[in-house]
């Protein structure tokens, strides 16, 4: 369901799009967690249930990004992330289903409980995993892959880290309109808490909420270190996405100050990317015990930790809060432990 395009039909004509999701995702009252935190109202937006065989927030972006690749007649996808990246895995799964070859250019990260199964999933679907030493080396590697590609560089579509180009960010402008539809008979939340890595999810929500005229603040909880996640980068992505949408349909207004309803919160990151904090562990345990939901300790656990902190500090007294769950909850295939991993490159073997 493309709620944004229903409101602005010109987007259907100008923005390539492939339906990968099952929308709308549920908007659930978290009665037990809310009571534990003393909140008047707490909602959970269940983007863990966006689709099968893999859910999570990346699918909303991939509908536009892979739609663009299909319209350009590409036959291969190159994207980027850490070794255990949910984005790289989601991209590879749906690229493979759509008939694209997929390259994942990967950088090192701390070992987490999820990395080994992610790599086994890549082995099962034939993702081409390539090592890189950092940002510049990743881009150079992608350029080399495109040059060497059998059908030519023009057939390779490059998708950025986290899918957070302006085009991918539109997926969460649409999500904001979806939420507005779901709230027709309920009070809009005062705050949305969401994990913020490459910024497309938080920025898209903030932009969409303002276009939809919902008076909700987006609390973007930083989970990736500076210089990736910064206010300057958020501003650029907000303004570019807004400009591109306005250029397609001038009924979409050009907005000022990107931070009118968007706040970046860096204090829950901890030592670095995928480094687990005590607050994150507590948040994951609390929501598992009260709402039977599993979060991850890299992204969503830190996002919820910010909400818990603010609730206990009294900042949410008398207010309505929403936690946007971006972590996939579709079970991995139960055959992954039997997958032959001999095809995986040597650089990922320490993670298995």
Structure notes:
The protein is an alpha/beta fold. It folds into 2 domains: 3-56 and 169-325, Rossmann fold, CATH 3.40.50; 58-163, Rossmann fold (3-Layer(aba) Sandwich). The chain contains 12 helices and 10 strands. Strands 1-2-10-7-8-9 form a 6-stranded mixed β-sheet, with helices on both faces. The protein has a 4-stranded parallel β-sheet with strand order 5-4-3-6, sandwiched between helices. The longest helix is centred in the last third of the chain and has 18 residues, at 231-248.
Low-pLDDT runs of 5+ residues are none
Proportion in helices: 40-55%
What percentage of the residues does DSSP assign to strands (E)? 5-15%
Number of domains: 2
Structural class by helix and strand composition: alpha/beta
Please name the CATH topology of the largest domain: Rossmann fold
Please state the second-level CATH architecture of the largest domain.
Answer: 3-Layer(aba) Sandwich
- Name the average pLDDT: 97
The largest beta-sheet arranges its strands as: 1-2-10-7-8-9
Question: Shape from CA axes?
Answer: globular
CATH C-level class of the largest domain: Alpha Beta
SSE ordering? HHEHEHEHEHEHEHEHEHEHHE
Reported for the largest beta sheet, the result is: 6 strands, mixed
Number of helices: 12
Radius of gyration: 19 Å
Total E-strand runs: 10
The N- to C-terminal Cα distance equals 38 Å
């Amino acid at each position: 369901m493309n709620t944004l395009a229903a409101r602005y039909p010109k987007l259907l004509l100008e923005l390539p799009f492939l339906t990968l999701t099952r929308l709308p995702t549920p908007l659930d009252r978290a009665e037990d967690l809310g009571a534990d935190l003393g909140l008047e109202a707490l909602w959970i937006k269940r983007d863990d249930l966006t689709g099968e065989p893999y859910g999570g927030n990346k699918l909303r972006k991939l509908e536009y990004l892979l739609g663009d690749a299909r319209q350009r007649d590409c036959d291969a996808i190159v994207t980027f992330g850490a070794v255990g990246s949910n984005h790289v895995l989601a991209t590879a799964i749906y690229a493979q289903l759509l008939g694209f070859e997929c390259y994942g250019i990967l950088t090192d990260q701390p070992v987490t409980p999820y990395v080994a199964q992610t790599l086994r999933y890549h082995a099962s679907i034939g993702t081409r995993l390539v090592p890189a030493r950092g940002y510049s080396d990743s881009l150079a590697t992608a350029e080399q892959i495109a040059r060497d590609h059998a059908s030519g560089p023009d057939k390779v579509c490059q998708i950025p880290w986290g899918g957070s180009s302006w085009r991918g960010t539109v997926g969460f402008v649409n999500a904001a309109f979806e939420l507005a539809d779901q709230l027709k008979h309920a009070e809009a939340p005062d705050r949305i808490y969401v994990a913020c890595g490459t910024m497309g999810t938080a920025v898209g929500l903030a932009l969409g909420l303002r276009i939809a005229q919902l008076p909700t603040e987006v609390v973007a909880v930083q989970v990736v270190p500076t210089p990736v996640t910064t206010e300057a980068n958020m501003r650029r992505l907000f303004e570019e996405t807004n400009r591109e949408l306005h250029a397609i349909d001038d009924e979409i207004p050009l907005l000022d100050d990107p931070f009118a309803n968007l706040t970046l919160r860096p204090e829950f990151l901890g030592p670095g990317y995928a480094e687990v904090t005590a607050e994150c562990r507590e948040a994951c345990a609390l929501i598992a015990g009260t709402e039977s939901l599993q979060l991850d300790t890299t992204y969503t656990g830190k996002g919820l930790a910010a909400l818990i902190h603010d609730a206990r500090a009294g900042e949410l007294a008398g207010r309505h809060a929403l936690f946007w769950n971006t972590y996939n909850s579709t079970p991995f295939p139960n055959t992954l432990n039997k997958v032959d991993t001999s095809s995986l490159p040597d650089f990922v073997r320490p993670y298995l």
